Amino acid sequence: MATKEYSLKPFRAERKLHIEYAKELNPQQLEAVTSQPGPALVIAGAGSGKTRTLIYRVAYLIEQGVPAQRVLLLTFTNKAAREMLRRAQELIVPDLTHMWGGTFHHMANRGLRRHAKLLGFPNDYTILDREDARDLMNAIIVEEKIDTKQQRFPKGDVLVDIYSMAVNTEKSIEQVVGELYPHFGDLTEQIEILQPKYQERKRKNTAMDYDDLLAYWLNLLQEHAEVRERYAQQFQFVLVDEYQDTNKLQADIIDLMASAHKHLMVVGDDSQSIYSWRGANFQNIIEFPKRYPGCQVFKIETNYRSVPEILEVANAAIAPNVHQFPKKLRADRKPGSKPVLVPAYDVGQQAAFVAQRMLELHEEGVSLNEMAVLYRSHFHAMELQMELTRRNIPFLITSGLRFFEQAHIKDVAAYLKIVVNPADELAFKRAAKLLRGIGDKAADKLWLTVTGHPHFVKHLDSQPVLAAVPAKARSDWKQFAATLCQIEPLKETPSEMIRVVVEAGYEDYLTASFPNYAARLEDLNQLALFAQKYENAEQFLSELALMTNLEAEDAAPVQVGDELVRLSTVHQAKGLEWQVVFLISLADMMFPNARALNSEEGEEEERRLFYVAITRAKDELYLVYPQMRFNAGYQDVLQKPSRFLADIPPALLEQFELKSEFAQF
DNA sequence: AGAGTGGGCCTTTTT
DNA sequence: GGCCCACTCT
What we know:
The chain is α/β, with parallel strands linked by helices. It has 28 helices and 19 strands. Helix 15 (308-318) links the parallel strand 9 and strand 10 (330-331). The N and C termini lie far apart (68 Å). The chain binds a DNA duplex through helix 5, helix 10 and helix 20.
């Protein structure tokens, strides 16, 4: 790898460049975009053109002659990376396809597929999603004969969460349990003993969970100087978006990736740090100047997104937080209308109000695509979904379940996984249990008889294996074995594999098992189309596991051209914007969430979340709360408006009086 | 004994 | 939709 340094000429407005930076950027943005190499921290408030700054920085680097493959752009979603590259590409001529861009997990996976052998892992490992990790952990709890009855023992998903937190924050399990799971304090030792078992089991199955991708990648960079040097040399410029939501593990990876040149530019906003429960630590951004002494600091504080009335509410909402960089967001836009406070009787009336107002706005000419409903938790949107369906208002919801996490998608993917990685115990058992007459026990037994065989797929149809198959499952099993043999040679065309699996029997299973089989079949059809983009099954499966909710939409069957209202959690709305935003279920204990209030930091994070939600709105913002909570079987109980609403001076809001027509629900 | 089904109760945020 | 448990069917 050539290690030529590409230096940047000092920016001078009069010098002829393709892009007229000084015209297209404000002075603060311009300063960051044209800054000299070296560590740099960009504090960019909500709606201040953070993305724009990054795009222009990329374009500027390329225009200065830096080859695309020497730039690394880390973003929160792959979609964000793609979007930025696309827009940077529009600004300049050179080809950016060789630039590395994407999420941390994406980058780690890309590196590990190349170098996993150094860690004793084959490079065709499977990536476990949350559900897989939980199932594996539960299996271990059973095998280790842990008495989960006598004393409340954490379930698989809780254990996985504990380990995840330890890995991502680089803390000990004892510390994590002590701080976040004190009620399991006396089980600490047992919890510690199980972690290596979990690690071993994944290794045996040649599988990695999300945390392993990061942890092993960091390990590779730390322990293998040749790998570290290779990438640290390659990436002369490293850009990181949403830096406030990185955790210790990710920060360490960044530091090593940028260790040769130290041309590291991180961009973020401490007020929008909302992922501490995933180990994110906004101390990373606060202490960046300490870790990189002499770094340049840029503040971008002009907000182009929202009308001043919305911004004032946002500023008031975040003000009570003690732990933040002092900053003053200035509005650039002309005055518009005040945010509206809407007390609804209950969630039903809340839904009715939102739907009604949407229709009115649509009449007034606002596109449905420019409206969004945001909430704290997925289930807060239930009534609204029903209401919108009743009124024929088309909506797109990024639900708790991702497109790719749905059972039928995972079932079919399991077939491909078995062929790609015959050590994948979870995939094998999942697929086997779909056959009639095979349940947990039979699947366990069969796995023990088939695992480790060199000609795994062909072996399934052999005499010794057939003997272990329950009699009533025999014919299904034969079909299963035949299907796997059939798709094995098709690894280069994952979409074909999917079609074969569906036609060879999965379709029959769907029709027999689900009333909505047609919709599920259509999903699988879309999945096959989506798979065509990939060169082989392994790539396709990686993508499937690492895709975010936002990206999943591109693969989900949504008719193009249709106008859709967006329903989303605040977390998933990060980085997005709409003309009109409805923020619903603003009742205390719903938003802020009751469980987050156990600590002071918890309340501050909820407040940042509230701030993120408010700053998604460009023109109109509705703050809606239900006053009554439905109490099954008993009288409804009164609930308090969110404590965050009390921090907003009443003069900044317009009070909405619900007309009686809403009260009938 | 193991597979499969249905009811009751709860639901934070996600790569 | 998930989880747990009780129940029936084979």
